[in-house]
C-alpha cells in the first residue's frame, strides 16, 4: 500500500445553535497552537465572500431567498473554499471548522419542504472533502434555551431547532464523536483536546488520505 503523506487534520464542529461550537473551536485552536501544531480556525458560512454576504443578508432577514436557492448558496460557499482548504491540509495545517455540510443538510431538510428531502440536500455537497472527525456538541433545545434564549437570526426558534437536531442525529457516522455539551466549558474542552490530539497524530503519521 502506498505511503500517504503527512498532513493537517480536518476537524469539523457541528451541533444545534448555542451548543457552544464557536467557544470550543476557538479554545481548541489556541490549545493546538500552544502545543506547536499549525492550526487555523475556519467557519461556515464564511460571511466574508460575495456568496457569504448574500447568506448573511438572508440569515439576518435583510433579504428573502428561495429555500432551494439559499441551500445551494451555502453549498457554493463551501465549494469556493475547497481548493484553499485542501492546500492548507496538504501543507500540514490542521483546520478546525465551525460548521460544515452537515449543518447545510440539517437546516434545509428540517424545513420539511416538498422535494427538499435529505437526499436532495446532500447532493450539492457530494465531492467536497470529508472531515477526519466531526465533533458533535449534543445539547437539547431546553438546555440551549437556558443559555439565555436564541438570538435574532432566522433559524433560532425552538420548534425548528428540534427538527434540526433530528436531522443531525440521522446523519451520525463513524467519524462522529458525540460530546455532551451540557457539561462545563472546561470539561468539554478537555475531552475535545484528547480526541483532537489523536486525530492530529493520525494525520501527521500520514496513514489516511483526505476523504
Ligand atoms: N446554516 C449554516 C445553514 O442553514 N446552512 C449551512 O450550510 C450552514 C453552514 C449561522 C446559521 O447558518 C445556518 C445554521 C445557523 O442557523 P453560525 O454563524 O455558526 O450559523 O451560528 P452562530 O449563531 O454564530 O452560533 P450558534 O448559535 O450555533 O452558537 P454556538 O457557536 O454553538 O455557541 P457559542 O459558543 O456561541 O455559545 C453560545 C452561548 O452559550 C455559552 C456561551 O458563552 C454563549 O453565551 N456557552 C455555555 N454556557 C454554559 N455551558 C457551556 N458549556 C457553554 N458553552 C457556551
Ligand atoms: Na457559532
TrEMBL record:
Domain of life of the source: Eukaryota
Thymidylate kinase-like domain boundaries: 13-191
InterPro entries listed in its UniProt record: P-loop_NTPase (IPR027417), Thymidylate_kin-like_dom (IPR039430), Thymidylate_kin_CS (IPR018095), Thymidylate_kinase (IPR018094)
GO biological process, one term: dUDP biosynthetic process
Gene3D superfamilies attached to this UniProt entry: P-loop containing nucleotide triphosphate hydrolases
Alphabetical keyword list: ATP-binding, Kinase, Nucleotide biosynthesis, Nucleotide-binding, Transferase
One MF term in the entry's GO annotations: nucleoside diphosphate kinase activity
Pathway in which the depicted protein is active: Pyrimidine metabolism; dTTP biosynthesis
Top EC class for this record: transferase
Kinase keyword on record: yes
E.C. code: 2.7.4.9
GO cellular component: cytosol; mitochondrion; nucleus
Family to which this protein belongs: Belongs to the thymidylate kinase family.
Protein name: Thymidylate kinase
Organism: Chlorella variabilis
